[in-house]
């Protein structure tokens, strides 16, 4: 009978552990557009940024130890639904008639990332990049006005998210003939979430983008200016800067539901009790 009781307690504890697997609050992104009214997106997963966006890197000389600064900016082409199905495209409401207004709304992002370079070969035709830090900001604008070529219309509107980029491996880039291709990624912690847009707490974010240059670019034009403050066009891009086509996606990770931690604690108590009974 004692063995049976031990087994029953152990099975109960394992069951509690299974039940205590993290569950996450479902974020809902809500905003009001001029032409389509209130948009309430459940489940909100993140943004698919424009494949014709750009990243501009300064400070690269092709030497290991180079400290570079990369500025990335884009407008969203869709809002992601992590459960699959349709994406919501800026300016188009699921309930809007096809003959309705075409004036769109938009989300835009600007991030600035500091990195250190490690060359893989002597000529640095292949290089790895590690993030030292950085920041990002995401804005909502009811009237779409982003200009990816001049950098205008990127930093205006209402700020929805801000965050700090974590240090760590960021990606790699390889020159191939007259072009080159690579990838960068970063994780970041959110320092600001606009409660008028998102009805639940979000903890952090992950962003990934391809990088293309030269013959590897597709349906893209090189920008002339960086984004400035307040939606203005900023400084002109120098001929010495590296200018990449950047096609990014960004997701947001949720904070576990409060009940999850309580269940986890209960499961650990159950396991401890099972161990004491065994001893």
Account of the 3D structure:
This protein has helices at 2-19, 258-278; strands at residues 29-33, 37-41, 46-49, 53-58, 67-80, 106-119, 126-141, 158-165, 168-176, 179-193, 202-214, 225-227, 233-236, 242-254. By secondary structure, the chain is mainly beta. It is built from 2 helices and 14 strands; from the N terminus they run αββββββββββββββα. Residues 6-21, 95-102 and 259-271 have low confidence and may be disordered. α1 runs antiparallel to α2. The strands form 3 sheets. Strands 3, 4, 5, 6, 7, 8, 9, 10, 11 and 14 form a 10-stranded antiparallel sheet that branches. A two-stranded antiparallel sheet has the order 1-2. Strands 12-13 form a two-stranded antiparallel ribbon.
Summarize the structure.
Mean pLDDT is 82; it is low at 6-21, 95-102 and 259-271.
Write the layout of secondary structure elements.
Elements: H1 2-19, E1 29-33, E2 37-41, E3 46-49, E4 53-58, E5 67-80, E6 106-119, E7 126-141, E8 158-165, E9 168-176, E10 179-193, E11 202-214, E12 225-227, E13 233-236, E14 242-254, H2 258-278
Helix pairs in contact: 1-2
